[in-house]
Amino acid sequence: MRILRNLILLSFVLLILQIVAWKVSEYVLTIGFMCLIFLAINSIFLTIYITKRKPISIYSDLVVLFMVFFTLYGIAYPLDYTLGLLHDYSYEQVYKSIVVYVLASISLIIGISLSQALLKSRDHKVKSVVQGLHYSSLNFAGITILFLGLLAMLYDLYRLGGFNVLGVANRMDYFYAQRNLGGSTLPFKELTGAGFLTLAVSVNNLKQVRYLLIGLMVVCSFLFFGMGSRAYIIIVALPVLATLLHRKLVTINTRKSILIMLVYLIMLSPIFTNVRDSIITKSDLFNLPKEDWAFSSGETGAAFQISTKIISNDGWNGADASYITAMMYMLPSNVYLAITGHNKPMNLSEWYVSHYLPYTYKSGGGVGFSPIAQAWMNGKYAGIILVYMLIGYLISRLNNKGLLKYILIGLVLSFQRSSFQSFFSSFLIMSLALGGIIVISVILSKRKASFPYEANLIK
Q: In a 3-state reduction of DSSP, which class is residue 121?
């Protein structure tokens, strides 16, 4: 609780300094100062957390990864605004949004700290509920689910148009065809991710690790060049890296860790986005305006802009931001109608683009959504505080929950730029797929035995 008390005190002092800065500085400096507050709060917390927890790697700890990506997505756009690279919104709008992000950050840290305090106050021993799973049975089940995921991906491409929607240049045709089919797509990324995660759990020597990584690189290369997607790559690859690091089958030093982070930043940067868009639109990459090269013009700025738009408006006609609705969204339409008495509303990401960007919607495009925006729609400041305290508490608790932790590690980035419905659907499908893998493995196992390494990988 000492950490929590110190963080609250620090936040209070920084907010007092911000009030003073508001009175004596120009508006850009004020927004810049709020960025410093946001960055300072998160950096200090991460420093304390990593010092005390000593994770094997930042890539194998759910709390660290969540805080890193939350900070990146929260600070990228206001920093570009401060530097004068982007001015899509007024000062008042950007300032109010960054204040909301600071509040969310404090709430997130309080939730994490409360969870850590409760874990320390009890003898927390988690027992494995899965026994008798041999490497061979688990390996076979993982390969089976992986094969089904790849088969679903190929069939999904086929039903949407085959080679006509394949490749970076045809990316918008893929989304347009998908929307014409009611926005439905087969859960190939979740099945593929579950298959690779199971294989990462089951490999037990360097030769198998080498084959696993080769297969992972082949699939990620297809996702990159065939579909132009960075989110799919992270969903599939990050849990594998985290699992192998946890099992100490691969090791990375500080230099390699920084290099991996640079690769992620390049993928999230406007370099990736502009190259992809130049291929799609056949435009000259070197004649783009400077605004397109602002860092938040890549992947990291859309969620903040969506939050700003939502926070700046009092009404959201046609939107259903309820978390209960989001969790029920995977039900068949007739079942949903029978339970609720009305048809399914639009997914929040589709609602936003149809409401605010109708041209993009008609062409099949999208911009995702924002968890900050959805929390705001569920209670404004109170919604931000309660939702992000709960998120902090849950990610801290689930950080000790074996395979659930690694599923969430794969989804931690997409969470920052999605509606809760999209996140929850992916989480549920991957959890069910892994549950199926465990069932298959139990059936195939003929004698009881624990894993020869940490049995608490599966709980």
A: coil
